[in-house]
């Protein structure tokens, strides 16, 4: 999943890019509103799913950038800002921000918000992403039929329990993106806290066994799990997020 | 101020006019009277000339039984003259011998006065003195006559006395008339003085009034009020411009403070955000089994963020210009209690409400709600599980009091004096969650709306925090 981070403070940006990279996001960093608007021009790359917009920009007012982004595309915008006063929040939301996070934020909360707005996400790019998300999975022979809640590998149906299917469907929303444990618990178990510590591991294990693809679901230590969209042997290097390569562009 | 200034000016003016007018009136009266007296003396002198005193005439004067015939006819003539004089001028006139017997008198029944001013004047005339200093006649004098006596001197002896008693009516009328002229003049001068004084006080006080208005505006929070340059004394003009400068400086200082708060928060939030992100990153690298420390570090970070928020809240609360409005505090308090109930239930504390169904107070609902939140939060923090926190609304004569009673450990005397100070926390509660700003924010919010916050120990243990707000609009 590609994100656009608009942030003038390099230290915050670097840390955020690193953390998001560890979570499997590809982040493009823009230092100014101008740069951000340039980056949003479609250039054949995978479109951005979410924009994280800091309001304290050097060249123009963040609110203005937000309304320009809104006018130009349907990409969801999360305002990330040091302005905590209620008036700024209301103003930002009125200008078309989809969400509003005040620094310093909790990482888990920020990720949950990113996933939330990406899910609501914009029409066509999201569909394209959904199709693409099927693409790499299909390359490995996995087809997920969300309508009929059935999964087949290489054409044969794999019987999954309700929770196993929900888990696979969640991870397949954004292949490559790491889903944090608490998020998986919220969405699959509808619970805000992790039951007994091993439940998730047990389900992941049975998923791997049933699908016969041990390398499909990867555990990222300290974070959570993700689907590996590519063939094993060519894993996306973690820690050096794919997005950082574009940041200097 | 205006009335005092006018009073002073007009009193001075009145004193000056009186100091000029009273002697003038006196002078006029005495001049008028002097003219009458001189007139009468002239008349009397004419009679004195006509008095037959040549040769044997003295015999007639001395009351000889057979006076000379020429004398007799002249005496008769004198009588006729006197009668004519009396008819003409309305003044009595008489020529008296030394023994007081009349030589010629008009009107005929007039006799020498036995006592009083007439007798005194006669006596003086016998001693050879003219009566100059008859008592001053005022328009209100009871004695309606003016007596003039003139000795008739022959060969150094006083042989007779001519006494006139003229009515003072015309004299009094003349004096009164001239006094009225003076009075009219003085009244005119006074009117002019009043007009001038009003103009002067207006000129002096207009800048003071605008200054007063601007000061009041600034005191009640309209910081953009300034004194328009107007006339008035140069000192007050200088004062007004100094006042404007001062107001500018105050506004500038306030703006700087506000900007500092905003900047500080912004400048602190970014590094804090970066720090917490780095902590997350470190957390990803940690081997298993360190979740607890990582959670603790995260907790510290978010606590720092909360302190920052509280500080900002305090700064904005101090700048807040609440707009008080009539609010049903009973409903407001109930709403806040409902909001806190889940947390209370989670902590095993019973939130109890007690009060009238309706309690109108004059508050800024948001500020009061925030203040009450801080107080209830505090009470829930210190109340052990299983006991209760009571919120009681009481209607007073002038104010509504909302008391929050907790069953916590309470505070010592010394601590009661310090509670509500910024960042103050009882050393015994250093480990309870919070920044120590909650109650000072509450106090600031209440003070801004004309209320107050007070603390007292509760029985048997615990703390009573009372939020007091006015029932009626604060007339400032």
From TrEMBL, chain A:
The UniProt annotation puts the region (Disordered) at 228-249
Q: Where is the Response regulatory domain?
A: 2-118
Q: Where is the OmpR/PhoB-type domain?
A: 129-229
Q: Which SMART domains match?
A: REC (SM00448), Trans_reg_C (SM00862)
The protein's matches in Pfam families, at most eight in alphabetical order, are given as:
Response_reg (PF00072), Trans_reg_C (PF00486)
Q: Where is the signal peptide?
A: none
Q: Which Gene3D superfamilies match?
A: 3.40.50.2300, 6.10.250.690, Winged helix-like DNA-binding domain superfamily/Winged helix DNA-binding domain
Keyword set includes DNA-binding: yes
Which domain of life does the UniProt lineage start with? Bacteria
Q: List residues modified as 4-aspartylphosphate.
A: 54
Keywords assigned by UniProt, alphabetized: DNA-binding, Phosphoprotein, Transcription, Transcription regulation
**DNA-binding region spans which residues?**
129-229
The record ties this protein, via InterPro entries, to: CheY-like_superfamily (IPR011006), OmpR/PhoB-type_DNA-bd (IPR001867), Sig_transdc_resp-reg_C-effctor (IPR016032), Sig_transdc_resp-reg_receiver (IPR001789), WalR-like (IPR039420), WH-like_DNA-bd_sf (IPR036388)
Query: Which PANTHER family did the record assign?
Result: REGULATOR OF RPOS (PTHR48111), SENSORY TRANSDUCTION PROTEIN REGX3 (PTHR48111:SF72)
Name of the protein described by the UniProt record: Sensory transduction protein RegX3
Q: Which organism is it from?
A: Kitasatospora terrestris
Automatic annotation (TrEMBL), chain B:
Q: Where in the cell is it found?
A: Cell membrane
Protein's UniProt name: histidine kinase
According to its UniProt record, this protein's enzyme class is transferase
Could you list this entry's UniProt keywords, alphabetically sorted.
Kinase, Membrane, Phosphoprotein, Transferase, Transmembrane, Transmembrane helix, Two-component regulatory system
**Where would you find the membrane-spanning parts of this chain?**
179-205
Catalysed reaction(s)? ATP + protein L-histidine = ADP + protein N-phospho-L-histidine
Q: What is the lineage of its organism?
A: Bacteria, Bacillati, Actinomycetota, Actinomycetes, Kitasatosporales
Per UniProt, residues of the Histidine kinase domain are 263-473
List the Gene3D superfamilies: 1.10.287.130, 6.10.340.10, Histidine kinase-like ATPase, C-terminal domain
InterPro entries to which the protein is assigned, alphabetical? HAMP_dom (IPR003660), HATPase_C_sf (IPR036890), HATPase_dom (IPR003594), His_kinase_dom (IPR005467), HisK_dim/P_dom (IPR003661), HisK_dim/P_sf (IPR036097), Sig_transdc_His_kin-like_C (IPR004358), TCS_sensor_his_kinase (IPR050428)
Instruction: Give the matching SUPFAM superfamilies.
Output: ATPase domain of HSP90 chaperone/DNA topoisomerase II/histidine kinase, HAMP domain-like, Homodimeric domain of signal transducing histidine kinase
What EC numbers are recorded for this enzyme? 2.7.13.3
Which segments constitute the HAMP domain? 202-255
- Gene Ontology molecular function terms on file: kinase activity
């Amino acid at each position: 999943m590609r994100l656009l981070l608009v942030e003038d403070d390099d230290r915050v940006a670097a840390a955020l890019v690193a953390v998001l990279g560890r979570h499997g996001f590809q982040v493009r960093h823009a230092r100014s509103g101008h740069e951000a608007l340039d980056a949003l021009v479609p250039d054949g790359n995978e479109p951005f799913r979410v924009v994280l917009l800091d309001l304290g920009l050097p060249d123009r007012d963040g609110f203005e950038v937000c309304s320009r982004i809104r006018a130009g595309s349907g990409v969801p915008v999360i305002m990330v800002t040091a302005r905590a006063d209620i008036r700024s929040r209301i103003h930002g939301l009125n200008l078309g921000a989809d969400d509003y996070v005040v620094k310093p934020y909790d990482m888990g909360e920020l990720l949950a918000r990113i996933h939330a707005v990406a899910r609501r996400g914009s029409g066509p790019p999201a569909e394209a992403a959904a199709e693409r998300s099927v693409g790499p999975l299909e390359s490995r022979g996995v087809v997920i039929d969300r309508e009929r809640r059935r999964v087949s590998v290489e054409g044969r149906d794999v019987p999954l329990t309700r929770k196993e299917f929900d888990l696979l469907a969640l991870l397949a929303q954004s292949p490559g993106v790491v889903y944090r444990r608490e998020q998986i618990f919220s969405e699959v178990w509808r619970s805000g806290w992790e039951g007994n510590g091993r439940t998730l591991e047990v389900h992941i294990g049975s998923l791997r066994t049933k699908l016969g693809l041990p390398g499909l679901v990867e555990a990222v230590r300290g974070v959570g799990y993700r689907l590996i969209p590519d063939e094993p042997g060519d894993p996306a290097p973690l820690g050096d997020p794919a997005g950082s390569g574009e940041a200097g562009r | 101020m205006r009335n005092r200034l006018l009073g002073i000016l007009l009193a001075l003016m009145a004193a000056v006019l009186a100091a000029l007018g009273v002697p003038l009136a006196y002078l006029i009266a005495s001049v008028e009277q002097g003219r009458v007296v001189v007139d009468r003396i002239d008349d009397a002198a004419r009679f004195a000339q006509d008095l037959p005193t040549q040769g044997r005439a003295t015999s007639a004067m001395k009351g000889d039984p057979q006076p000379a015939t020429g004398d007799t006819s002249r005496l008769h003539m004198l009588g006729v003259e006197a009668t004519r004089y009396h008819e003409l001028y309305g003044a009595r006139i008489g020529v008296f011998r030394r023994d007081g017997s009349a030589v010629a008198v008009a009107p005929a029944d007039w006799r020498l006065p036995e006592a009083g001013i007439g007798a005194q004047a006669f006596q003086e005339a016998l001693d050879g003195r003219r009566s100059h200093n008859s008592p001053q006649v005022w328009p209100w004098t009871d004695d309606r006559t003016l007596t003039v006596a003139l000795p008739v001197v022959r060969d150094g002896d006083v042989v007779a006395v001519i006494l006139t008693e003229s009515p003072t009516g015309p004299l009094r009328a003349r004096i009164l008339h001239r006094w009225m002229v003076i009075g009219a003049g003085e009244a005119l001068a006074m009117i002019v003085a009043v007009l001038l004084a009003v103009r002067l006080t207006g000129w002096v006080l207009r800048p003071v009034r605008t200054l007063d208005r601007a000061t009041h505006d600034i005191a009640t929070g309209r910081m953009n009020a300034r004194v328009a340059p107007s006339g008035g004394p140069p000192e007050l003009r200088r004062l007004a411009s100094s006042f404007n400068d001062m107001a500018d400086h105050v506004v500038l200082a306030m703006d700087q403070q506000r900007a500092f708060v905003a900047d500080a928060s912004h400048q602190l939030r970014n590094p804090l955000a970066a720090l917490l992100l780095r902590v997350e990153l470190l957390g990803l690298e940690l081997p298993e089994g360190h979740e607890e420390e990582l959670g603790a570090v995260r907790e510290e970070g978010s606590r720092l963020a909360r302190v920052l928020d509280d500080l900002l809240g305090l700064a904005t609360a101090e700048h807040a210009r609440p707009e008080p409005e009539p609010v049903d505090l009973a409903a407001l308090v109930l709403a806040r209690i409902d909001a806190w109930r889940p947390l209370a239930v989670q902590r095993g504390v019973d939130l109890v409400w007690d009060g009238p169904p309706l309690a109108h107070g004059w508050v800024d609902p948001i500020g009061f709600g925030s203040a009450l939140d801080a107080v209830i939060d505090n009470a829930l923090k210190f109340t052990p599980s299983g006991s209760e926190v009571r919120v009681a609304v009481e209607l007073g004569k002038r104010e509504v009091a909302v008391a929050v009673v907790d069953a916590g450990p309470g505070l010592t005397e010394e601590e009661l004096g310090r509670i509500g100070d910024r960042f103050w926390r009882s050393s015994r509660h250093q480990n309870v969650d919070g920044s120590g700003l909650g109650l000072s924010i509450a106090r600031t919010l209440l003070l801004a709306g004309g209320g107050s916050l007070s603390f007292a120990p509760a029985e048997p243990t615990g703390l009573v925090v009372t939020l007091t707000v006015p029932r009626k609009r604060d007339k400032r």
